[in-house]
DNA sequence: AACCGCGTTCCGACATACTGGAAAACAGGC
DNA sequence: GCCTGTTTTCCAGTATGTCGGAACGCGGTT
């Protein structure tokens, strides 16, 4: 099963069905065209669909499968895919013609990491935290009103708690969400979070008042430790990384199986807080 | 200055001039069109150019700069760039409108790493080697008859030996090149290496016989340690990572400033060999 | 051998993505 | 404020990239 940081997605199967989405054209202009039949699409869009599809699907696919998966004409997909293979943006995976994301993407991604202080500095911290505790450690941020994991390092446990790096999840579903929203007024939070995100994965509603109270407690404690909202097996720990103004730019967190005794829980919490404070310091944040 | 593993590029300035290349259409068919004026290009090509440009350039740029840099119409670049920002493939960098590679690329890149045994296993080894020695450590492979660095971890030195991850370099220029070609016949090597690659960065020619002799010695020794061919400051150490058949699939290597005494050189070599053997083992290779 | 399913390649036609050029917004410098 | 150079946005025309559909190739089954 697939579990994400403090927000394990409920057995989010990687089903190969069409990537239902896009069409939310956020053009700045009114877009007078009444959304004609989604006939033809341009190459760039296809390319993006292909990459996203392979990323979400997580495993090598044949051009034909990709075409079916994203609901695009085969001829188009073959065309584009060949171009991308030339560029090493995709790479052949086996002799059956399966393809996967290519090394060029790794190079691009590395450049991205180099460029950004937060991630560059956080990377060794996440690794150290994970190594030291043997648990899965992650760095999480807010991304367009959702929570996403941006760095992850798996723990030593035999059953892998893999994380869906980069998959947006409602803030309300996550332990970290309580911390990431610190400092926002009630009104701001209501405006910020999409209303549907107050529906928890089991279908129940999270009362706003409860959520606000949890945020308050999180801020007061300086960390959160709680059972995952989205699965029955994991406990999550999260600590804030703050900037010079004291607002929370990210959280450092851990995912562990439930069932640890109080002693170990405290120990994990302390280790986490220690690393989080270090990271905040080295970023010039206010501790 | 910029230095790459065992092949520091000679002050390879990152000049913002047009990316002269492509046009080598390797279509399987004769391509009857006599290569018309390079008029219009498709979106996908532009997109690739943009990403490559930002990657090679290494720093955030404005859409306008990108347009100039890749020699594309501004209107086109603005169009595409906006699309990519929506997708988080590019990201705004500052309020002057500069952009850089986006987090999505990091996510894609991570998936790539997860998927491939060699890199997944090699990553902790490279890190460990670098931490233990304080030097820059890298994993290198052959990529279309050239050498490229696929993993890197900077050493603790104050002046950063940054590496051009993913930049193809002639095998002859690199220490690792001697190892990566092990097992190939003279004829195979001649056929494989582009003739122009026997010209060293200083303009001199590398005699084939010398090169072959160096390869033989490398194989016999089981490692190479030599002064970098391409700069005057560094010494490089390389050790082979072999597969079950005993052929060299990659090299683990280190870049150090010159001037270490024999004792330390031996020590570094031993550490390197130790880690390389570990990695080969864990990949099921023949030691 | 002939048949079937599946993955891949080929090809012509048309909608449209890309382009050039010009206008508009912006940023300094005087 | 006014002028000058730069960056960004807008727009309409046409070269061309995308699509559908058909043909091809290959492995396995009857």
List its salient traits.
287 residues; DNA-binding; six-stranded antiparallel β-sheet; two-stranded antiparallel ribbon; 8 strands; homodimer; Beta-Lactamase; alpha+beta; globular; 9 helices; 40% helix; Arc Repressor Mutant, subunit A
Account of the 3D structure:
The structure is a homodimer of 287-residue chains. The first copy, chain A, is of the alpha+beta class. Chain A folds into two domains: 43-103, Arc Repressor Mutant, subunit A; 116-282, GAF domain (Beta-Lactamase, 2-Layer Sandwich), CATH 3.30.450.40. Helix content of chain A is 40%, strand content 16%. Chain A contains nine helices and eight strands. Chain A has a six-stranded antiparallel β-sheet with strand order 5-4-3-8-7-6. In chain A, strands 1-2 form a two-stranded antiparallel ribbon. In chain A, a hairpin with a 6-residue loop joins strand 1 and strand 2. In chain A, helix 1 (43-57) packs across helix 2 and helix 5 packs antiparallel against helix 9 (262-282). Chain A starts with 42 loop residues before the first helix and ends in a 5-residue tail after the last helix. In chain A, 39% of the residues are buried. The model of chain A is unreliable at 1-5 and 7-37 (pLDDT under 50). Chain A binds a DNA duplex (30 and 30 nucleotides) through residues 39-44, 46, 62-65, 72-76, 78-79, 97.
Name the pair of protein chains with the most residues at their interface, and give those residue counts: A-B, 41 and 40 residues
The portion of residues assigned to helices of chain A is 25-40%
How many domains of chain A? The number is 2
Contiguous helical run count of chain A: 9
| Percent of residues in beta strands of chain A | 15-25%
Mean pLDDT across all residues of chain A, rounded? 84
Calculate the terminal CA-CA distance of chain A, rounded to whole Å: 37 Å
Give the second-level CATH assignment, the architecture of the largest domain in chain A: 2-Layer Sandwich
* Outline of chain A: globular
> What's the total count of β strands of chain A?
8
Order the strands across the largest sheet of chain A as they lie in space.
5-4-3-8-7-6
Query: Rg of chain A to the nearest angstrom?
Result: 21 Å
CATH class of the largest domain in chain A: Alpha Beta
User: Which consecutive residue ranges of chain A, at least 5 long each, have pLDDT under 50?
Assistant: 1-5, 7-37
């Amino acid at each position: 099963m697939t579990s994400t940081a403090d927000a394990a997605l409920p057995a989010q199967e990687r089903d190969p069905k069409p990537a239902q989405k896009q069409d939310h054209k956020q053009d700045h202009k009114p877009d007078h065209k009444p959304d004609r039949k989604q006939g033809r699409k341009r190459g760039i869009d296809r390319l993006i669909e292909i990459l996203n599809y392979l990323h979400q699907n997580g495993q090598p696919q044949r051009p034909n499968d990709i075409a079916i998966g994203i609901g695009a004409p085969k001829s188009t997909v073959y065309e584009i895919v060949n171009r991308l293979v030339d560029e090493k943006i995709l790479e052949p995976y086996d002799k059956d013609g399966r393809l996967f994301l290519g090394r060029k993407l790794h190079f691009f991604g590395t450049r991205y990491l180099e460029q950004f202080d937060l991630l560059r500095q956080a990377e060794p911290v996440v690794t150290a935290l994970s190594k030291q505790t043997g648990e899965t450690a992650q760095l999480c941020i807010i991304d367009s009103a959702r929570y996403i994991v941006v760095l992850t390092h798996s723990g030593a446990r035999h059953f892998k708690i893999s994380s869906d790096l980069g998959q947006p999840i409602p803030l309300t579903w996550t332990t970290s969400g309580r911390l990431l929203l610190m400092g926002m007024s009630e009104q701001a939070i209501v405006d910020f979070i999409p209303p549907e995100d107050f529906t928890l994965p089991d279908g129940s509603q999270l009362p706003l008042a409860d959520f606000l109270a949890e945020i308050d407690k999180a801020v007061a404690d300086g960390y959160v430790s709680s059972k995952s909202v989205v699965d029955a097996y994991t406990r999550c720990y999260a600590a804030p990384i703050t900037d010079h103004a004291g607002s929370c730019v990210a959280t450092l967190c851990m995912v562990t199986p439930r069932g640890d005794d109080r002693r170990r829980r405290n120990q994990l919490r302390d280790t986490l807080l220690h690393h989080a404070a270090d990271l905040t310091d080295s970023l010039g944040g206010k501790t």
